[in-house]
Amino acid sequence: MAIIKESYPVIGMECASCVKKIETILLKTEGIINANANLASEKITVEYDESLINKKMIAEAIKKMGYELIVG
Ligand SMILES: [Cu+2]
Questions:
Q1: Strand partners of residue 49
Q2: What is the pLDDT of residues 33-65, one digit of tens each?
Q3: How far is the CA of 51 from the centre of ligand 1 (A)?
Q4: Domain membership of residue 7 as a residue range
Q5: Contact 47, 27 (CB under 8 A)
Q6: Ligand 1 centroid, distance to 19 Cα (angstroms)
Q7: Cα–Cα dist 68/60, whole Å
Q8: 72: pLDDT strictly greater than 90
Q9: CA of 22 relative to ligand 1 center, distance in Å
Q10: How far is the CA of 69 from the centre of ligand 1 (A)?
Q11: What is the CATH number of the domain that holds 41?
Q12: What are the DSSP E strand ranges found in 1-72?
């Protein structure tokens, strides 16, 4: 099991409730240990277990919420 901590740019966050929504849903997602969205820098920092989830899956979850995660 490897824990990865990375930050990705996110498009579409506009207010504190976007931040809250993204963090809440990510934290409920299996494999995500920690999630922090920053409105000012427009980035999301996630800590996840790569045996359970990957950045592509995280980007999918973000997309379902109406935002776009740039995972490269
Ligand atoms: Cu908002």
A1: 3
A2: 999 999 999 999 999 999 999 999 999 999 999
A3: 31
A4: 3-69
A5: no
A6: 7
A7: 9
A8: no
A9: 10
A10: 15
A11: 3.30.70.100
A12: 3-11, 32-38, 43-49, 68-69
